[in-house]
Design a protein that fits this description.
With 66 residues, the protein is an alpha+beta fold. The chain has a domain of 45 residues. 27% of the residues lie in helices and 41% in strands. It contains 1 helix and 4 strands; from the N terminus they run E-E-E-E-H. A 4-stranded antiparallel β-sheet has the order 1-2-3-4. Strand 1 and strand 2 form a beta hairpin. The two termini are 22 Å apart.
Length: 66
């Protein structure tokens, strides 16, 4: 899902690691020109919703720190 926030676009999702069964949150932040400004993963979580929420939260924190 793409969210507009303070001039950036945040794309976040969750991916399941097939080996461990744990979920990783992933996010990508694009600037106003659509260029990737930052991209990262969060620590593994036990379920998809937790991983997705962690990714969104981390992305907001990164934008707020800019």
């Amino acid at each position: 899902m793409e969210i507009k926030y303070k001039g950036f676009s945040i794309i976040s999702n969750a991916e399941c690691d097939e080996n461990s069964g744990r979920w990783n949150g992933r996010f990508r932040i694009l600037d106003e020109k659509g260029v990737v400004a930052y991209e990262s993963f969060t620590e593994p979580r036990s379920n998809q919703n937790e991983a997705y929420d962690a990714a969104k939260h981390s992305a907001y924190e990164w934008v707020d720190a800019q």
